[in-house]
Design a protein that fits this description.
about 20% strand; Arc Repressor Mutant, subunit A; alpha/beta; 2 domains; S-adenosylmethionine-dependent methyltransferase activity; WH-like_DNA-bd_sf; about 325 residues; 14 helices
């Protein structure tokens, strides 16, 4: 049987010659987590070094070094706008093989918790730096308005109005009250405020802060077994506590127990992250909660109307982003 001749590639089918040096340079560039984070951020929009430092929570020297490496490898371009140099991920203009490597890297890091934290900080950064639509007076103050308001009117300006959502006869409980900052904010607007904590030192600090404040009671107890009666509070709060507990579900179940029918159970805690150094430094037992996990704690406690959302982080905050969740005690 005759064997057909091996077809020879035509002019348009000539395979590209191997480029080991280029491939190794691309692989080396993408083998660094900070560079992957930069590329993901710069896919969304152009950003300058200052903004990237804020979002990544890294010093300028580190960010600048990684930007140079990415630019030298052809992953980024930059342009001047006034005194600022803006960087952009040119993924749709890359060499085809280089683009394939980036797509693979992007796919394999899609579930990385750090990228979700970066996305939250990017959203907060956008909000702060959105173009002002106000008049000239406010346009001139936009960059310093928050600090100006706080200096003139005090730090409680933004949070105190929220307390007016409580009825005047409200009874509230703060699970893990710590030094009593939330209790102090709520006490003027509620009939009873209960602070619950396992630490005698924290309760002593709360007592000193709230000395003489009417309607405040402090209780040293296990947050899974408090002295409060069934269905005794209109709202139960838990702020940055669950990440310290070995069994957070037990505390959430206790919050649900003491809430009245129709009462609110509200939780603020860390969004899921992978900063083990942060967890160890803060003495926490977990690396925060994904949205489904935090909502699941409320659902498992028998609450309804559960919703959870990511809290846009303050631009100057150095810790992980936070997540809010709330549920309602079903009516009897």
């Amino acid at each position: 049987m005759d064997v057909p001749p091996t077809p020879q590639p035509g002019p348009g089918l000539t395979p590209a010659p191997p480029r080991p040096d280029a491939a190794l340079a691309w692989l080396s560039c993408l083998a660094d987590g900070t560079r992957v984070r930069l590329l993901r951020l710069l896919e969304a929009e152009e950003l300058g070094v200052s903004g990237l430092c804020t979002i990544l929570q890294l010093p300028q020297s580190t960010v600048s070094r990684h930007l140079k490496a990415l630019a030298d490898a052809g992953f980024l371009i930059s342009r001047r706008r006034g005194t600022t140099r803006l960087y952009e991920n040119v993924h749709d203009e890359l060499d085809p093989d280089q683009a394939d490597l980036w797509r693979l890297t992007r796919k394999q890091t899609a579930g990385w918790a750090t990228l979700a934290q970066d996305a939250a900080r990017l959203a907060a950064y956008r909000a702060v730096h959105a173009a002002s639509g106000g008049d000239d007076f406010f346009a001139g103050l936009a960059g310093t308005w928050d600090a100006t308001r706080e200096a003139v009117y005090g730090a409680r300006l933004s949070t105190a109005p929220l307390a007016m959502l409580l009825p005047a006869d409200a009874r509230v409980a703060d699970f893990g009250c710590g030094t009593g900052s939330l209790l102090a904010a709520l006490a003027p607007f509620a009939a009873e405020v209960h602070g619950l904590d396992a630490s005698p030192e924290m309760l002593a600090a709360a007592g000193a802060r709230l000395d003489g404040t009417a309607g405040v009671s402090l209780h040293r107890c296990d947050l899974a077994a408090t002295p409060l009666a069934d269905a005794s509070v209109d709202a139960a709060f838990c702020v940055l506590v669950l990440s310290y507990l070995a069994e957070p579900a037990a505390a959430v179940a206790e919050m649900a127990r003491v809430a009245k029918p129709g009462g609110v159970v509200a939780i603020t805690d860390l969004a899921a992250h992978d900063r083990d150094d942060f967890r160890r430094a803060m003495g926490q037992t977990s690396n925060g909660f994904a949205e489904e996990a935090l909502a699941g704690l409320l659902i498992d406690a028998g609450l309804t109307g559960v919703r959870a959302t990511l809290l846009p982080p303050d631009p100057g905050a150095t810790g992980p982003a936070l997540r809010l969740a709330r549920g309602l005690k079903p009516a009897a």
